[in-house]
């Protein structure tokens, strides 16, 4: 089958409120428990069944991704990625890229057509937003060239600065081809 054309978009919003998306990506902890930030928002909205389903899948390593159901979230699946703690899990850039690549591999294996990512590792894990944005977008642009099922990859950012940075970086990378 020929690869599909994938749209990559960047929007301001809440990753726990993306009802038109097949799978939302969680900025998880190794134990796949609830936490702050993205993990807190997703587990709160999903309900306790999410943590229960995740228990036997844990622990995961930096760069790894696992998939679960979405429970009370308005999606089909949650893909849980453990991003690197900046300055601790090395090489941070490769581990961060591996998260995005591995999440997209799982999405393709499950024949999903849309995935939404938060900005992994840029909250509690301390990754500088500018570096993380370039790694996230260049990895996703590369990986999207081989997708059979995915048609939409959405980055959901929490504030105007992160959204503008993602849009500008996406434009720059797409212009460079
Ligand atoms: N929707 C979209 N983006 C969000 C949301 C939301 N609801 N909430 C926060 N962000 P973080 P990490 C942004 O800390 O750095 C957790 O406690 C936020 O502004 O969620 O990978 C876990 O349990 C930031 O830019 O993820 C782990 O222990 C980005 O999402 C640890 O934190 C990621 O922030 C994971 O840390």
From TrEMBL:
It comes from the Bacteria. It holds the Pfam family Macro. Residues 1-174 form the Macro domain. Gene3D superfamilies: Leucine Aminopeptidase, subunit E, domain 1 (3.40.220.10). InterPro entries: Macro_dom (IPR002589), Macro_dom-like (IPR043472). PANTHER family: GANGLIOSIDE INDUCED DIFFERENTIATION ASSOCIATED PROTEIN 2-RELATED (PTHR11106), MACRO DOMAIN-CONTAINING PROTEIN (PTHR11106:SF27). This is Appr-1-p processing protein. It comes from Litchfieldella qijiaojingensis.
